[in-house]
Amino acid sequence: MTNTKDKLNEAKHFLEEMKRVSSNLDKFRYELTAFLAASRSLTQIMQKEFSGKNGFIEWYSRQQNEMENNPTLKYLLRQRNNLETVSSRAIGVYRVMTEVSLGDRSIISCCCY
Question: pTM for this one?
Answer without folding.
Answer: 0.67
